[in-house]
Amino acid sequence: MTKLRIISRLWSHITDLRLLIRGQGKKTLAEIEDELDITEYYCRPYADADDVDDD
User: Is 1 helix (H, G, I), strand (E, B) or coil?
Assistant: First the structure.
């Protein structure tokens, strides 16, 4: 999964959590946590990579 797609997923999780806090969410906390676990899995290949820009 690309870094951009991971960032998109993270923003989706943030939105889900904000809706949950406001009582407007359609997802449960457990569902959000499950999705966060999946996103964490996709982050693993980047965990030890140096993120140096080539300026």
Answer: coil
Q: Is residue 55 part of a domain?
A: no
Classify 21 as helix, strand or coil: helix
The count of residues in the chain is: 55
How many helices and strands (H and E) does the chain possess? Answer: 2, 0
User: Which one is predicted more confidently, 34 or 46?
Assistant: 34
Residues of the domain holding 19 = 3-46
For 10-35, the pLDDT digits (tens) are: 999 999 999 999 999 999 999 999 99
